[in-house]
């Protein structure tokens, strides 16, 4: 895939392992981003850019702050008691943590798919129509539902079951319903937190194929523990690690070819080759 036209590698200081992009190419950007849960620091001083229409994998051992970082990009950490966010997160160069920004709007434009499928206890149709209805879009709902299910590659499997509960279908289908639900409000970004970890290999392959296909329309930031998955689907990979103090930091960020084939940091090499993790 290798979308690196605007990319350069910082050459000095602590940023030497972090790929940088022309800011105008970034759909998301964070700078000096830190998150605490009460008195406990979760991540510290993370800076990275996410270029438009790319797939970026966040990799690293459990507890290194990947999911915490992911939730910063659509203000989901606002919903966690005692969570505090410092630093900057920009979406199309607009600061999303400004007081005049509606986090609900941010979450429609930057959708999220969780580790385990979480369809609403409603019909398949109502799951997909939920977001548009909340946004006051009541015209052409049938078209929106069909289009979203088609984009999520699940229409042919559920088109005759739209009035059945979304909980009655398989786990893989449920996860694609959740992706369709996110797509129904036409987001520019979708955040995915290990979306295939609870699925069987066939369903996992379907989700991976879907992610690659969707990247021509939306930017995707995905947390995964599966190195093979990251190498198969990503354009870029960001490796995070928590040291003895258990604070997550961004260690290396680059193209897939560089991070997995020629990592700059010995800790990255140890992780991607399976010597730590």
Which terms would index this structure?
277 residues, alpha/beta, Rossmann fold, 6-stranded mixed beta sheet, 4-stranded antiparallel beta sheet, 10 helices, 27% strand, globular
Question: Describe it for me?
Answer:
- With 277 residues, the chain is α/β, with parallel strands linked by helices.
- The protein has a single domain, classed as P-loop containing nucleotide triphosphate hydrolases (Rossmann fold), CATH 3.40.50.
- The chain has a six-stranded mixed beta sheet, sandwiched between helices. The protein has a four-stranded antiparallel beta sheet with strand order 4-3-6-7, with helices on one face.
- The longest helix is centred in the last third of the chain and has 14 residues.
- The radius of gyration is 19 Å and the shape is globular.
- The N terminus is likely disordered.
């Amino acid at each position: 895939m290798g979308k690196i036209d605007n990319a350069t590698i910082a050459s000095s200081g602590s940023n030497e392992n972090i790929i940088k992009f022309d800011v105008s190419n970034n759909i998301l950007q964070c700078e000096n981003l830190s998150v605490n849960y009460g008195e406990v620091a979760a991540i510290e001083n993370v800076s990275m850019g996410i270029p438009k229409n790319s797939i970026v994998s966040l990799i690293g051992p459990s507890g290194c702050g990947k999911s915490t970082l992911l939730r910063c990009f659509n203000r989901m950490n606002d919903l966690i008691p005692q969570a505090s966010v410092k630093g900057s997160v920009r979406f199309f160069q607009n600061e999303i943590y400004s007081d005049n920004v509606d986090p609900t709007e941010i979450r429609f434009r930057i959708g999220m798919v969780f580790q385990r499928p979480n369809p609403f206890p409603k019909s398949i149709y109502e799951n997909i129509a939920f977001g548009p209805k909340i946004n006051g879009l009541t015209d052409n709902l049938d078209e929106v539902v069909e289009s979203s299910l088609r984009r999520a590659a699940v229409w042919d499997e559920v088109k005759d079951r739209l009035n059945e509960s979304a909980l009655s279908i398989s786990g893989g289908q449920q996860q694609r319903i959740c992706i369709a639900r996110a797509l129904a409000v036409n987001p520019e970004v979708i955040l995915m937190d290990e979306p295939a970890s609870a699925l069987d290999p066939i369903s996992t392959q379907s989700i991976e194929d879907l992610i690659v296909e969707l990247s021509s329309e939306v930017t995707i930031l995905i947390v995964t523990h599966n190195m093979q998955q990251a190498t198969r689907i990503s354009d870029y990979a960001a490796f995070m690690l928590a040291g003895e103090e258990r604070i997550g930091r961004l260690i290396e960020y680059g193209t897939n070819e560089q991070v997995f084939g020629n990592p700059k940091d010995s800790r990255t090499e140890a992780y991607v080759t399976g010597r730590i993790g």
